[in-house]
Write a structure and sequence with these properties.
By secondary structure, this protein is mainly beta. It is 0% helix and 51% strand. It has strands at residues 2-7, 10-13, 18-26, 33-39, 46-51, 58-60, 68-73, 78-83, 92-99, 113-114, 118-123.
Length: 124
């Protein structure tokens, strides 16, 4: 079992930046590949970014590629999502998730553990 707590969301203007953090506790953080997903009001949850156990491989949704960077710090049991050049369409609740497989995955069904989410609002 692993517990995930997101932080770092907030209100930002178009073109601004945010860094989301997800602190993991419980079983060994390095045993999990990690992902970020988001859900906007009235829309399905969608994949944002993922990083595998050893931080060798990363995946990004086309909508954030080039503007976002996922990283992890095993010493702090934390995964980060740095988002730059934010747009109003990035407004959503952002969720951190943990997957026990080795590879980074864009499929929400692969993730066993989820955080409560952090709100990101981008004003135009």
């Amino acid at each position: 079992q692993v517990q995930l707590v997101e932080s770092g969301g907030g209100l930002v203007q178009t073109g601004g930046s945010l860094r989301l953090s997800c602190a993991a506790s419980g079983r060994t953080f390095s045993s999990y590949s990690m992902g970020w997903f988001r859900q906007a009001p009235g829309k399905d949850r969608e994949f944002v970014a993922a990083i595998n156990r050893l931080a060798v491989n990363t995946l990004y949704a086309d909508s954030v590629k080039g503007r976002s960077t996922i990283s992890r710090d095993s010493a702090k049991n934390t995964v980060y999502l740095q988002m730059n050049n934010l747009k109003p369409e990035d407004t959503a609740v952002y969720y951190c998730a943990a997957d026990q497989s080795y590879r980074a995955s864009a499929a929400s069904a692969d993730y066993s553990y989820w955080g409560q989410g952090t709100q990101v609002t981008v004003s135009s």
